[in-house]
Amino acid sequence: MGDFKHLKKEGPGYQVKQYMALQHIIGIAWVCIAILLITNTSYLKTGIILLIFSLLLSIVSFIPPKINFDPENQLLIVTNRGLNRKEIIYRLEDFEGFELQTFRLAFIPLGCYLYADFKNISRFKRPVISQSFSKRILQEITNELEDISGHSTIQ
Prior knowledge:
Blueprint: E1 7-10, E2 13-16, H1 22-40, H2 44-61, E3 66-70, E4 75-80, E5 86-91, E6 95-105, E7 108-118, E8 128-132, H3 135-149
Antiparallel strand pairs: 1-2, 2-3, 3-4, 4-5, 6-7, 7-8
Transmembrane segments: 21-38, 44-63
Keywords: Membrane, Transmembrane, Transmembrane helix
């Protein structure tokens, strides 16, 4: 259990790396639109307001939750670091497996999300382990987490 590509050893557990996803691209696009609006048009006040709100949106979207997977203590710890600061601890005794979900618009993939499924948690409140545009990256994260935990269930 030495080196992992997508997991970083932190204390007794492992921290899961977070990657760029659709909401990050949308935030960056709005910042670029606001800059273009300020520099190329006469709508200076509108551009400044749009720039302020899009920068705030970008800052909030670039603060991903910190996901710690602790197989020694049988815990999955999700620490939200944005506006809603709280720590949620899941027991791995109730763990059912990982679910890899891809959202598409026609043939265009909009994003892939890796969820952890638990017995006593509804599908709407299950934790997002990682997100990316690439399904391959999330499959590698799943394989590394399964190597650590010993569970080999993916849906």
